[in-house]
Amino acid sequence: MKLQPIIPFEPILAEQLPAGNQWIAQIKWDGVRMLSYFDGNSSELINRRGNYRTGQYPELTDVAAYCKADSVILDGEIIALKDGKPSFHEVMRRDSLKNGSTISVVKHQVPVIYMIFDILFYNGQSTREQPLFSRQQLLSDILLPHPHVQAVPSYTDPAELFAAAQNQNLEGIVCKDINSTYAPGGKDKRWQKRKIISDIMAVAGGVTFRDGIVNALLLGLYDDNENLHYIGHAGPGKLTVQDKRDLTALVHSLNIDRMPFAAFPQRRKGAFWIKPELVFKVHFLEWNTSGTLRQPVTQARVDLPPQSCTMVQKSPFL
């Protein structure tokens, strides 16, 4: 039976940790959301947007090697570590690859771990209507030891886990109602994320250069009328020297004469305007009252459509 791709259930952003005995908490991993599908014959890895990533992670394609099941759909996050912590930039070095020979080389340079936290289908039957605590018990029963796969630990004290995540400077935590069913494509308060490090996906409408190399991105978000609003000027952050060289070559091919933003950015001296086609994940401290990001740090370029960078993510001041 061919398994159909599922749009994953998402947590809502919360300002406070939920209270009550029905809540568990898990670390929010700074990685790539990924569902793995095994129909009994073949396996596929598909991300949250329905894009196939089977080829990018060959060490994870044999689902039967880490899960006892005749057929199964697993939900989790693929992460890569740098200095012992999840690094979005590192995992994107794997996720962006297309060439098989390059993947074979880089998979040894950037090892990944599939952090599994849910099961949506098992042995021919959907498990999405079962409560979370039942799905977690099933997961613990069927997952097998594997060097690139781990079950995500759950904790009964969200406040304690949040404090630990703060101490380790991790992205945040996700709190889940243990009675919650799994609603594909849904997002509601039964799952809540509490962030320590804020992040956003934004599209570049311009860059600036230093010594001929890109040294900053002028970032924006789209409103409902497809107007691009400037939200900040971010340095290269986690981008490597080679990343910056590649980006410099790319932006020259995207040069346009007309500024793509709805209004001139305050910081525009030396700006080089480009077609708004390049999307980046950016960490930031908070939103300024002006509607711009405070202390934005570029994490990685991501393969997303620019139109997905909308003001749904925006500051309340925009």
Structure description:
A hairpin with a 2-residue loop joins strand 7 and strand 8. The termini are far apart. With 318 residues, the chain is α+β, with helices and mostly antiparallel strands. The longest helix has 13 residues, at 241-253. The protein has helices spanning 88-95, 100-109, 132-142, 158-167, 241-253; strands spanning 10-13, 23-27, 32-38, 43-47, 72-82, 85-86, 112-122, 125-126, 149-151, 172-177, 187-195, 198-210, 213-222, 228-234, 272-284, 286-287, 293-294, 297-302. The strands form 4 sheets. Strands 3, 4, 5, 6, 7, 8 and 9 form a 7-stranded mixed sheet that branches. The protein has a 5-stranded antiparallel sheet with strand order 14-13-12-15-18. It has 2 domains: 24-156, DNA ligase/mRNA capping enzyme (D-amino Acid Aminotransferase, Chain A, domain 1, 2-Layer Sandwich), CATH 3.30.470.30; 198-313, Nucleic acid-binding proteins (OB fold (Dihydrolipoamide Acetyltransferase, E2P), Beta Barrel), CATH 2.40.50.
